[in-house]
Each structure stands twice: as structure tokens, then as C-alpha cells.
Fold each of these.
Amino acid sequence: MKNRRLCVLGSTGSIGVNALSVAEHLGMSVHAISAHNNHQLLVEQTLRYNVKRVVVTNEDHYQTVKQALAGHAVEVFAGHKHLDDIAADDDVDTVLTAIVGAIGLQSTLAACRAGKRICIANKEPLVIAGRLVMETAQKHNAQVIPVDSEHSAIWQCIEQHKNHEIRDIYLTGSGGPLRGRTDLTDIKKEDALQHPNWSMGDKITIDSATLMNKGLELIEAHHLFNMSSDHIKVIIHPESIIHSMVAYKDGSVIAQLGLPDMRTPIQYALTWPEHKNGLVETPNFIELGSLNFEDVNHDLFPSIQLARQSLELGDFGPCALNAANEIAVDQYLKDQIAFQDIFKCIESTLPLVTQNHNASIQDIINFDTEMRQRLQS
Ligand code: NDP
Ligand code: MG
């Protein structure tokens, strides 16, 4: 494997921190990183990994970061527009996107236009503009490699069987923090934030509680693997050992297994097409004893059906779904709305969508802005 030079967008988050430890393990040099509010960790990471360029997207922290790094050979930039510069930097060949939310769209596209290897964790840009992200990557010979564990699994199941005919993709999900509940009234934030298997940022943990994470992943899979949504099935698998499966037309099913630890898919995205020595153990199958599967309770958790509906609405459907979800999850985390209001917010937003199957990036950005303004007014 050639020694890759890495840029991690969102290095201070759950994925970002894991990505830096995997990069260190692999002996990869980290050229550039970004953070939004956690300036202290940004400075620590810069010094520890000998980073050359840093972006603090929240400009309020610029002076603090600049002063803390004075005397070191580091360039410090403030504001979102500089994410595009570090993503397209000539000294970088691999960009790992670990920002949360659709705000990561422009920098994802900048990495595509610069022809980088893009290890995509930040799923929302793929949700709102997947067709355009994939087209841009193809046009500029960029490689888009999934980091999301389900998509990394599907990628691994498919890549060995390139010309084989796929019947269905099985996207597995743990069921999230609220699996088994029969009533979602008055769900406390503390309960919704307790994920049984994965340790992740707050937004994706709430998405796991509503099962919207699986809805977003369905849209993500649709774009990454060019599969129509009726061939993407979702099943609950509480142990999170099988990360997803691909069924072929002869009835054969290939699955990818591993412990629920994001360092495995992060490392594979960085080392692809090779599997290198890693930081994670193999599951102990005897201790596990059995693996279980359940159907989704779509009446209680309508997110996956809403995601399917949004895809039928054309380019703006997933954009509206995502904007409503981001705003509602933020409001729930700030104790402004109840848990079930997240579903209501999305349900009331989808009818506002106008059909469009040929939207440009600018159209998507304008529509996203318009939706957010309407939802917040
Ligand atoms: P975290 O909340 O832990 O981290 C988010 C990162 O984005 C932080 O570095 C944060 O900076 C930065 N950030 C937050 N807001 C902004 C903003 N407005 N502008 C620029 N940067 C910002 O999230 P996760 O690591 O959990 O998730 C990151 C992405 O990866 C999400 O899209 C998620 O869906 C996806 N993902 C995550 C998985 C996981 O296991 N965590 C699994 C699969 C996918 P700061 O902390 O400095 O404020
Ligand atoms: Mg996932």
C-alpha cells in the first residue's frame, strides 16, 4: 500500500477520533484536519499527529487555535470555505469525511472534483445529493469508498462478485436504543442516547433511536450501489455482528461480519483493496452463541417508509427528509420537542416537495436552505 496522505474533515468527532488512531496505526501521515467547536482537541490532535493545515469552521475559535499553535509549522484557517481547500489540497490523496450533517456537502464535492480517494462517513451529503456526488466523482476519477459499516459490508460482498446478478441487498440494523418498545410517548433524551452496541455522536444516535439512520442508509445504499430501493431490504439484527448482506439471483447470500467497532470499516476504506493488520479482534462466535433477526416495526418507527417515499419524490425528496430530520433532531436534543415530533416534522415536510429529476447542486442547496427556513420560522 502506498503511503497515503490524509485529510480528516471533522477530526474531533466519534469517527474523526477513530480515523486518526487508525491512521496512526497504519503509519499514514495526516496532512489536514478540521473541527467546529472542540478547539482544544483540535490543537492536541494537530500536535500529536504533526498536522500541517487545520481549519476551525466556527470562526469564534480561530484566535484561540492560532495562539495555541503559534511557533509550530502549521497553517490555521477559519470558516467553512477552507474545508474545500484542504479537501482538494495537492498534498492530500485521501479525504475521510467525518463531519455530521448536510453541511459537509461542499467539501465532499471539492474532494470529488480534485479526484481524491474519498472515504465517506458523512452520509447526509450522499442522502441529499447522492446522484450528483457520484456523477462528480466519476467525472473526476475520484474513488468513493464507504465507511458506514453497512455500506462497507455491502461493498466487500459486492467487490468480489462484480459481474454477478444481485437479487437484493439486506441492510442490517441493531434496532437502536429503543428496540422492543411498544410506546414512544415521552421518550427521555438520556434513554434515546443510550445505544446498546455502538458509541457514536449524538445526532446519529438519535437517528438510530428513530430508525431514521436506517432510512438515511437506505438512500445512501441506493446511490452508492445504484440499486432501486425496492431491492434494499432492512432487517433488525440486534447483535450488530453481520453488518449487511447481498443476495444473488441464484439464492446465494454473502455477508460481512465483525465486531461493532468503526475502526474496522474506517481502516478498510483507507487500505482498500487490501485487508491489513488492524486494531480490532475477530468476534468470538462460541461466546455469541446465536445471531438473531427481526422485522422492523414500521407502525411505531415510520422512518424507513418515509425514506422510501422521499426517493419516489425525485431529487428534492431526500433533501426535504434530511433537512426536516436534522432540524427536528436538533430541537429534540435541545428539549424543544418530543421524540415523536421528529416523525411528525418529517411527515409534514414531504408534501412540500416539488418533483424534480434533474436538479443541479445549486438547486439542491437552494431547496435545502428554503426548507430549513420554512421549518425554523
Ligand atoms: P460527531 O458529532 O461525533 O462529530 C461530528 C464532527 O463534525 C466533529 O468533528 C464536529 O466538530 C464537526 N462538526 C459539527 N458541526 C459542524 C459544522 N456545523 N460544521 C463543520 N463541522 C462540524 O459525529 P459522528 O462522528 O458520530 O458522525 C459523523 C458522520 O459520520 C455523520 O454523518 C454520521 O452519520 C456518520 N457516521 C457515524 C458513525 C459513528 O459510528 N459515529 C457510523 C457511521 C456513519 P466539533 O466536535 O469540533 O464541534
Ligand atoms: Mg451505519
Amino acid sequence: MKTRVAIIGAGPSGLLLGQLLHKAGIDTVILERQSADHVLGRIRAGVLEQGMVELLREAGVGARMDREGLVHDGFELAFDGRRERIDLKGLTGRTVMIYGQTEVTRDLMDARRASGARTFYNAAEVALHDLQSDRPHVTFTHNGETLRLDCDYIAGCDGFHGVARRSIPTGVLREFERVYPFGWLGVLADTPPVAEELVYAAHERGFALCSMRSPTRTRYYVQVGIEERVEDWSDARFWEELKRRLPADTAASLVTGPSLEKSIAPLRSFVVEPMQHGRLFLVGDAAHIVPPTGAKGLNLAASDVSTLYRILLAVYREGRHALAARYSEICLKRVWKAERFSWWMTSMLHRFPDTDAFSRRMQRAELDYFVGSEAGRTSIAENYVGLPYEPVE
Ligand code: APR
Ligand code: PHB
């Protein structure tokens, strides 16, 4: 079997790249380890930067998002019993779109199916070969059969635990990592949101976040120790803890209900350099992870996709083959800035075990300073709505 671009992974990165390339007439094959239902069963973030919104429209998959997504002009920071609004639109002229990653993935899967482009779900033993040659290939098994896919390029869109990054010989990549000493316990519920916009709350007992998927579906989080087990968190215990971390009037208006999903996610910052090797490009979570504070994970995957897509267009339409070597350098500029913002938001808003009273006062002063100054609020806002995509030239 032959294609132009072999895409490993049918998460948002792989599907979005596949859709953009399909629209441009560039053939792709997607290989995904799991079933489509399994991929759709994962609950992930739900805030889209304008750059990603525009990219989804460009890919021809923006219609349902534009109908059902919620445009938010701001968000709130809660601390010391008060709520302070960051006016994204007023400060930057830009907004964010509330639309779940699950829905983005579903729209992309529907578009791929309609396009007739080839996708192999339940593809096992995916292995990458001859990355340094002009004709790399991928082998995998499907329904008990071993198959070979020849291609020009491979896009490793297979997430943090995928095979693509691990296929690069040792010594080539440099890894940068920070593991945080806590996780987020998340609950999805069919309840009306406690506020019109997202509320990020810093509290002595730990961080909390009030988010939403729609006017009738909410997603709430509380910071928990890494040793915590989800079985130990009844719905009642979760709601009680969330309320304690919110300003009193916010807690009083919180509507609780049975959880539809409950899970704990660890927090990590991670980047590999470079994000490519020979004919393989690493895209999205395969190359970098951010902690969820600031909602940058999915958006950063989208900016990688945009960069790779524009490079491949120049390669195939204008014969600019040398541009491919610049993928990593172009992506990493934006990746590190998003890493910085996610790390900074995480550092400022969470309770770190074993930090002294002085450090806690510094955290609080930093928050107070940033929300109290227009320069500070603008800095938060321009990062939250998303820094500009790096030009490909
Ligand atoms: N072979 C084939 N597919 C694989 C393999 C493999 N060896 N390993 C992993 N995959 C698949 C996974 O099953 C998953 O569906 O690759 C896909 C990777 O998808 P994601 O983890 O969602 O990563 P990505 O598409 O880069 O999405 C960006 O942003 O909000 C964050 O972490 C969140 O998933 C989100 C990410
Ligand atoms: C979410 O809705 O799941 C969400 C929103 C904002 C974040 C992280 C997660 O920063």
C-alpha cells in the first residue's frame, strides 16, 4: 500500500492534519491503535483558541462548532474570596470557543469517513522504518494480517505514549520535563454552569476550576495529591471539596448532580527537541505535554498541525523540499511560549506541598499584582487567547 503522508494516531492532531491534507488533494492513511469509540470515550479539555477555530473552519469541519460552541469573551480568577475577570475581548480583541475535544474529534471523524480517505482503526504493532531514507515505510497488523505502507513522510500524531517518538534512535532527542506533585480530579455532570465564564480558583486547600461543555453540562476540577485514588472520591466528597475552594457566594450558587465521568489526571510539562528526525515529524502530545491550567494542550497540537500542513503544501505544490527540515525550529518557538504560560499559571494557582509561608505569600502577591495591573491582565489575556501562529516561510 502507498500514500503520500502516513499519519500515526487518530486523535485531534492526526485527524485534523488528515482533513487539511485531504482538502488540498494530498493523500494520507491514518493508523490508529484503538477503536473509534475508544478514542471518543476520552474526556479531555474544551477551550479552543481563535487560531484553532479558524483552522477547523479551513479544514471544513467548523459548522457544528459554530452552531453549538459557546464564544467566551473572558474568564475569571478567584482568590481571597473574590472573583476578578480577565476581559479577553477588551484586552486583546480576541475570544475563545468552548467546544469539547470529544466533539472536535467526532466532527473530524465524520468528515474523514465522508471523504473516503483510508483509516485503519485497531491497527496493532505499528512500526516505523527507514526514517532517514527518501522512502520511509510503516508496518502494522490489522485483522491478523501484516501490512506495509510506503510513504514520503510520516506524521507521528500518536500522543505521549505513542510509538513515533520511541522510534527515534537514542541520543538524537533531548527531553525536558517537569512532573508536578499533584493531579486534577475532574467531574463531568449534567448541571448548569455556576458562572457564565470559566472560573480558575486559587485556595489554601488547593486549586479548583469551574468549566463547562454547554449551558447544561459542566466540567469541574479540584487539585488532589498524586497518591489519591478516584475510588476514594464519592460525588458528595467532590462537591464538598469544590465548594470549599470557591468564594462563598459562588459556592452557594453551585448546582450539584450525579457525575457522568470522574477521573484523575497527573500534571506534567514535557518537550522533546528536535520535533523531527529524517522523514518523521512529531505532532501534538507526541512531542510535548503541558499541564492543563490555561488549556493549551489541544491548541498547541493544532498549531503544530498548521505548521506541518503549510510546510507540506509548499513541498508538494512548490517543490520546496528543504522547508521540511525547518518544521521543528518553527514549532518550538511557539511550543516553549505555551509551555511557559502553562507552567506559570500552574505555579501561581496551585498549592505546592512542602512550600514555606514566604513562597505562598509570593504566589498571592503575584496573582494580586497581575490582576491589579492592566499590563498584567493583558499578559494573561494574550497568552490565554493564544499567541500568533509562527509564519512558515
Ligand atoms: N499506534 C497507533 N496509534 C497510536 C499508538 C500506536 N502505537 N499509540 C497511540 N496511538 C493513538 C492513541 O490511541 C490516540 O488516539 O494516537 C492518538 C493520540 O491522540 P492524543 O493523545 O489525543 O494526542 P493528540 O492528537 O496530539 O491530541 C492533543 O491535546 O488537550 C490535549 O492531551 C490532550 O489529546 C489531547 C492533545
Ligand atoms: C476543561 O473544560 O476541561 C478545561 C478548561 C480549561 C482548562 C482545562 C480544562 O484550563
